[in-house]
Design a protein that fits this description.
single chain, 323 residues, alpha/beta, six-stranded parallel beta sheet
Length: 323
């Protein structure tokens, strides 16, 4: 069945922006909603028998028009995220996302980085209001990236004097002895996602200089033991792979005038079966403590390739049945 969307563009330019170069946005929406989309003049046609899908796509186009009229540059990432929100019946929140989105930092190339989802904005607000924040949820939601970028912004503004990045060095513990090279060469592969975020804002040279000066410290979790971390922004990544003892050790390093952010995905625990995840215990124990906030991301917040959300949906269904 061919359905004509009840959407009217203000002008040809608006239509071109929303449809995308070579109909790129339409092709992406076809994949995301499993329909056929086409144009006839300025009309958008949808081939599907599902009236609910037609209504969702129609509503999505209305939101896209509103955003374009506010000067928002529409990207593939926006199309994917807004489609996710539409499927979860959360699209009414979308305009707020773009009008209230947080500017985080300017990169070394002069580009401005904003929060890219409602949950990311909530996450940043939680970090500003609390000294200890847990960001938990699936890969692709920007938990680690946003945290590192926020740390750099606070370093540049003088709010903190040092950034400390750490994660369990190996999935099932911290047995680094069998790996070749010095400590840095052994742990760098495990810390690459943190380097990637740093390099975007500071450049590779800038990161290297900051590490040499001790302004940025990147180390395995075991090296946090016995320290008190003052005036610092401390990030523990992949925290689902900490043991309960490791997590307790890490959390008690928090010093004065410091922020501590713990990120992880409790569905991706790689610890031996005899070990329980320190992240799970910490969230259960501390979620209601004043000054501590737990922000939970879901697959609707995934802003990677659209297949990632579908993969997560299938695994969630499988794990729910198994459990």
């Amino acid at each position: 069945m061919i359905n004509k969307l009840n959407t009217k563009f203000a002008n040809y330019n608006e239509a071109q922006i929303i449809i995308g170069n070579n109909d790129g946005n339409l092709k992406l929406l076809e994949y995301l909603f499993d329909v056929e989309l086409s144009t006839r003049g300025e009309e958008i046609l949808v081939k599907t028998e599902d009236k609910q899908v037609v209504a969702k796509i129609e509503e999505l186009f209305k939101v896209l028009k509103s955003l374009v009229r506010q000067g928002v540059k529409i990207t593939d990432r926006d199309i994917i995220y807004l489609s996710n929100m539409s499927k979860e019946n959360q699209l009414e929140k979308a305009v707020d996302l773009y009008t209230k989105r947080r500017k985080i930092v300017t990169t070394n190339k002069g580009e401005t980085i904003y929060s890219k989802s409602i949950k990311q904005t909530e996450y940043l607000n939680a970090i500003n209001k609390n000294d200890l924040v847990f960001g938990v949820g699936p890969a692709g939601t920007g938990k680690t990236f946003i945290t590192v970028i926020d740390a750099i912004a606070k370093l540049k503004s003088g709010d903190i004097k040092k950034i400390i990045l750490t994660r369990p060095a190996v999935e099932a513990g911290e047995s680094l002895g069998f790996l070749p090279g010095d400590l840095k060469e052994k742990i760098d592969p495990y810390l690459q996602p943190l380097y990637d975020a740093l390099n975007i804002c500071l450049s590779v040279k800038g990161v290297e200089e900051s590490i040499e000066k001790g302004i940025i410290e990147i180390a395995p979790l075991a090296y946090m033991r016995g320290r008190t971390l003052d005036n610092a922004y401390i990030i523990l990544d992949e925290a689902q792979n900490t043991t309960e003892k490791q997590m307790k050790m890490f959390l008690t390093r928090l010093g004065t005038n410091s922020k501590m952010v713990v990120t992880g995905d409790v569905s991706q625990i790689d610890l031996p079966k005899k070990e329980r995840s320190g992240l799970k215990l910490a969230i259960n124990l501390l979620h209601d403590v004043r000054g501590i906030k737990v922000v939970e991301f879901s697959r609707v917040d995934v802003v990677r390739h659209p297949l990632v959300q579908e993969i997560l949906r299938k695994y969630e269904k499988y794990e729910n049945v198994r459990n």
